[in-house]
Amino acid sequence: MRRDKSPTCFLASILAMFPNWVWAISRCPPEAGEKSKAFVILGFAILGVFVALGVLVRRAMLRLARDRPAWARTLLAMAAYVLMLGCWLLGVSIFWMGFVLTC
Description:
The chain crosses the membrane at residues 40-57, 78-101. Keywords: Membrane, Transmembrane, Transmembrane helix. By secondary structure, the protein is mainly alpha-helical. Helix content is 76%, strand content 0%. The chain has three helices and no strands. α2 (37-64) packs antiparallel against α3 (70-100).
């Protein structure tokens, strides 16, 4: 059986899973109540801190790589982007698990 790896197939599978995501985050019991504005602001603040931290780590690593040979500059640049994406993913996962999926 041949698997279709086209972007259209990927987008269709993501859209097909959307009702499951909505169901997962809408199943809080009525006694859980509304989330306070401070709780929502704290969640977005934590997400913003991790995004800013990722950008600052990348910037610091690229400045560190300035006076190095080309091969070291390339390795440090790749490591900088990996660390930046890691910070972003950590921030998104903390935001998602700690603030979005809680009742």
